[in-house]
Every structure is written in C-alpha cells, then in structure tokens.
C-alpha cells in the first residue's frame, strides 16, 4: 500500500513539473492564457442572477405604481424615463419585455397605460360589477383587490354602503373586508319582538360557569386535569432503602474448601 501511494505521489509531482514547464514556455514565447472576465476568481452566477431579477422587479413595480396613480391616462415613454427610471428604455431591454408581457399594463400608440383587474372607476361601475358577480355566483370581491385596481374606490364603497346597495362584511379569518351585492328581494322581515327576545338571551361566560360548578361542589374537567390530585397514593414514590448485603463466603470456611487460600492470605499479611 505504501508503495502504491509513493507511485501516485511521484506521478502527481511529475505532472506538476511538466505543467510548470509548459506554462514557463508559453510565457517565454509570448503566449498568454485566454482572458477571463472575472480573472481566476469564481463567480456565483445564481446570486448574480437573483440580484439582477430583484432589481428588475423593483423597477417594474415602480412603473406599475406610477401608471396606477395615473389611471385612465396614456403615459409616453419619455415621461416614464424621466419621472420613474432616470434612464432610457433602450438601456433596459429586460424591463421593456416585462412591461409588454405584464397583465397590469397596456401598450398602445407608443405609450403605456394601467390595466386594472376590476373596472371600478365610478360607483355605478362598482355596483354593476358586484351585481354581475352575484348573478354568476362568483361571490364577493375583497376591498384590497378593488383598491389595487382603483386607489380611490373607498369613497364609492362608502356611498353605496350608505345607500344600502352593497354589503361590506369583515372576514374574521383573513381580517379583510369583502363586498357583496345586496339583493333586497331575498331579504326576510323579522318581527321586532323576536329580535328583542333574541337579544335578551344571556349566555354565561366561562367565569360564571366555573362559579356555578364551585357552588355545587363540583369542578370543571379542565381544573381536574390541570390541578393536583389529593389522593393518598398520588404522592411521589419514596425511594426504597438499599440493604447492605454481605457477599463474603464466611459460611463456607468450615468446609475446608478455602483453607489454602486463607493460609496464603495470612502469610501475605505477615510479610
């Protein structure tokens, strides 16, 4: 095994010497290694691509936000170059491709325009949109989606809600407000006496329930699980006393089996 390792080491050394000679010969003859864009340093292309994509995404969001603020207007390229980018689109071809393929932008007549997800520029358009979704059975629309389509839609929502034409319900799970069309023909009139009786029904909270159980000499299952038991056998187990055991074979001394061993021990002690 040692011989094999020595042979391999000798071959590696020989190859290194030959490579050094070849490199020196190339330098002497004026032949240089091919140019490398980053020298001999290794470049992590994945990090470089991620950084580039992040930059493009930021510029894309800036342009879309600007178009959203100027909804209904056609924004020429020179305005976007001056107000948002600070450079020409000719120097940013990837951003141009993303804008042309983005569903929130429209390219027409040499200018970009914002393409909203929902057409809710006016209160009437918002009402028609909710009515159409109600007939199709598509459900409601979140307020965030409407604000993304039109940042000024809140005033239309307040007006229609005040007029009783739409319903605004808060989703307790997502904490978002959802808008629905209000169909008056499907509403049911409830007698006020029944409403008052329903409101007068009191439901005991957990504190009142625990107090009632305590007055009756009982406890809730939650207290029985969490509380400590007072049963006599529930205390901690006591450690068993360890008995001192004698492992010497003194009971076999009179049988003459260990006489030789006892004599040797006595002689060793006298020494």
Automatic annotation (TrEMBL):
Domain of life: Eukaryota
Segments for region (Disordered): 1-46, 214-248
Any one GO BP annotation for this protein: transcription initiation at RNA polymerase II promoter
Pfam families: TFA2_Winged_2
GO molecular function: DNA binding; TFIIH-class transcription factor complex binding
Compartment(s) of residence: Nucleus
TFIIE beta domain span: 44-121
Keyword Nucleus: yes
Keyword presence, DNA-binding: yes
InterPro entries hit by this protein: TFA2_Winged_2, TFIIE-bsu, TFIIE_bsu_DNA-bd
The entry's keywords: DNA-binding, Nucleus, Transcription, Transcription regulation
Summary of subunit composition and partner proteins: Tetramer of two alpha and two beta chains.
Function: Recruits TFIIH to the initiation complex and stimulates the RNA polymerase II C-terminal domain kinase and DNA-dependent ATPase activities of TFIIH. Both TFIIH and TFIIE are required for promoter clearance by RNA polymerase.
The protein's name: Transcription initiation factor IIE subunit beta
